[in-house]
Every structure is written in structure tokens, then in C-alpha cells.
Amino acid sequence: MGRRYEVGVIAGDGIGPEVAEAAIPLIEKAAVAAGAEIAWTRYPWGCDYYHEHGRMMPADALDRLAPLDAIFFGAVGRPDVPDHVSVWELILPIRQAFSQYVNLRPMRLLPGVSTPLAGRGAADLDMVCVRENGEGEYSGLGARYDQGTPEESAEQIGRFTRRGIERVVRYAFSLAASRPRRLLASATKSNALQHSMVLWDEVVREVAADFPEVEWRPYHVDALAARMVTHPDTLDVIVASNLFGDILTDLGAAITGSLGLAPGANLNPDRTHPSMFEPIHGSAPDIAGRGVANPIGAIQAGALMLRELGLPSAHDALQNAVEQVLTEGTVRTPDLGGVAGTSEMAEAVAEAM
Ligand code: GGG
User: Fold this and answer.
1) How far is CA 185 from CA 222, 234, 297, in A?
2) Phi and psi at residue 220, in whole multiples of 5°?
3) Alpha-carbon distance values, 111 to 148, 232, 261, 322 (Å)
4) Tens digits of per-residue pLDDT, 212-240?
5) Pick from 197, 195, 190, 192: which is nearest to 169 by CA?
6) Position in ligand 1 atom list of the atom nearest CA 75
7) ∠ at Cα 81 (76, 82), nearest 5°?
8) Closest CA relative to residue 257, chosen from 296, 200, 313
9) DSSP class of residue 191?
């Protein structure tokens, strides 16, 4: 047996545990076939933990996660805990503390999956969003004032640093340079956000000078959202701030078939701390507990994890199996128009491996 990897699992809430537990045996199988071993440690953190302990994860959670090779995350949030509490006490602190400043979200139309954009040049839809993942609109800065009075107001500060923009934009340009089309779209809104997005545009222009081989242009984020629907075939790599990237990638998932298919990787490119891998969907309380959630987003997140851990053949085996099952089209979860359950879908992928 080759290298042993320590992976922490935070399955979280709602459909998180259902899709994470369906994906884990497949990730394990792919790793073992590549001669590696994964030791999984499960952390029961999330909304149940919150009700028992008054917090989403323990005070020493980050210390316990820090030595791991990777974190595999399910989903966070439930109607009985305010969303801003669950998200701000679990997933966002991990991203920030571990400098996971790149949120990589591929948006590719997989074989056998239909897009609501049929006939709009979407046949070869293959985009990837590099979302800034630690600052911007999700810096957590701001306050409520004069609560309960007619003068009540709230401020949410989007804090962008030159360093924070520069590192994620550089990652995005490098990625674009490595892809066949070498295109990069930068999501901005500098006509209205006259401080933060003007800095964003300046830094993008500076970094672009180091990548003359990449054809790039800025788009106001509203125009970019429209372009994703009208001309998705003209887009390749998209670099976006935290909030813009969050929104654009849900749109990207919708036009590539289903939110249930979409994977995400919260990357620490400097490898000073573990990266974290998750399906991009949330906890979906409306279908939680029914065993019908699509596990493909979690399985593809697992494939990204294997690639980042240095197991490209394991990534390919898992990814090819997913694509084979989708191409055959006989096993489909309800989000893809079928009747298969979570475990049936995962079993089909296992058989295809
Ligand atoms: N599987 C990830 C998840 O549960 N996401 C919930 C969510 O909305 N997170 C906020 C974010 O991605 O920024």
C-alpha cells in the first residue's frame, strides 16, 4: 500500500450526511485502486451539535482539523438554526483559517445530461469559476444600528485587499493559461462599486500583464450572468469575488443540468493547511431524510480531492465512472428527471468503476 492520507469528514446537515456517506466508499475504492489508503475521521459538527453545545463546532475544531491532509464536507444549515449562524460558525471559519482562498467550481455539461439552454451553443459548455473565498463581501464586517427603531440600519462591509485579490486572480490566470482556449472573464461591477471593484479591476489588469497568452476581459457581473445564459460557449475561466462567484456558480450549476451535480474545492494553493472539498449545494431541508439527493456533486468533489492529494489516476477513475453512468442514463435521481435514490446512484457509479 502506498501513502496513507488523513481525511476529516464534516458531513453536516440535511442531505449533507446522505451524499457524503454515499460518496466516501467510492472515493476510498478509487484511492485503493491507485495504491493509496485513506483514514477517515468523522466530526459530528453542524446543527445537531449546535443544539447540544450552543456552537456549530467545538472551540478546538480548527486545531483538530489543521494536521489533516484534506477535509470532505457535506452541507450546512437547517431551518431551526439561523443561516448566518450555521454558515458563519462552520464553513466560513474553516475557509478563512486555512487560507482556502480559491474556491474552484467547475461548470461543465457532463455527457448524458441535458441543459435548459439547449440550442444556445451549450453543447460544449465547459467553464470553471475561480471564486475568491476568504474576503470581499463575506469578510464578516459590518453591524446593525438602532435595532428596533424606525431609524434601524445595517452595514455589510465588503473588504478587499490587494494581496487577497492578487493571489486569487493569479491562480485564475494560471488556470486559464493551462486550458486549451486560454480565456478569462473577470466579474466586476466597478460602475457601481466604486472602491472595491475599481481596486479589483486594477489588480486584474496588473496580473494580466504576466499572462500575455491569456485573452481576458472584464464583464459587469450582471452582463456576465446574462452571457452565461445567452452565449455560454464563449466563456472558459471566470474569476469572481466571493459573493459574485457564489451566485454565478449556482447559475452555472443550473445551466449544466442540476445543482446536485456540481462539485467545489476550497483550495489552499500554498498547501500550508488542508483544503476542503464539498458539493456546492446546500443542505436541502425539503428533501433531507428521503434518500433521493443526488450524490454526484459529492462524488465529483471527492474526485477533485483525489486529484489535489496527488492521485490523478484515482480522480480519473472516479470521474470516468460518473460520466459513464450519466451517459448510460438508466439510473437518474429526481433532479435529473429520474426516480433513483441516493444509494442506487452511488451503487451505479461503484459498478462502473
Ligand atoms: N455544501 C456546501 C454548503 O452547504 N453550502 C452552503 C452555503 O451556502 N455556503 C455558503 C458558501 O458557499 O459561501
Assistant:
1) 13, 10, 24
2) -65, 140
3) 53, 17, 12, 10
4) 999 999 999 999 999 999 999 999 999 99
5) 197
6) 4
7) 95
8) 296
9) T
Which pTM does this prediction carry?
0.96
Task: Report d(CA 172, CA 46) in Å as an integer.
Answer: 32
CA 285, distance to chain mean position in Å, is 19
Read off the pLDDT of residues 50-94 as tens digits, 9 standing for 90 and up: 999 999 999 999 999 999 999 999 999 999 999 999 999 999 999
On whether the CB atoms of residues 70 and 275 are closer than 8 A, the answer is: yes
To the nearest 10 degrees (0 to 180), the angle between helices 342-352 and 296-308 is 40
Tell how far the Cα of 305 is from the centroid of ligand 1, in angstroms: 17
**Residue the block writes with cell 500550508:** 272
Query: Ligand 1: residues within 6 Å at CB?
Result: 75-77, 87, 91, 246, 278-279, 281-283
Of the candidates 328, 333, 335, the residue with the CA atom closest to the CA atom of residue 352: 328
Nearest to 208 by CA among 160, 261, 169: 169
Q: Please tell me the distance from the alpha carbon of residue 191 to that of residue 273, in angstroms, as a whole number.
A: 36
Domains of the chain: 1-101+259-353 (3.40.718.10), 115-256 (3.40.718.10)
Q: Which three cell numbers stand for residue 88?
A: 458563519
Ligand 1 centre to CA of 114 (Å) is: 25
Q: Please, is 343 exposed, middle or buried when counting C-beta atoms within 10 Å of its C-beta (0-12, 13-18, 19+)?
A: middle
Contact 318, 112 (CB under 8 A): no
Give the CA angle between residues 9, 244, 88 to the nearest 5°. Answer: 40
> Which residue type sits at 33?
A
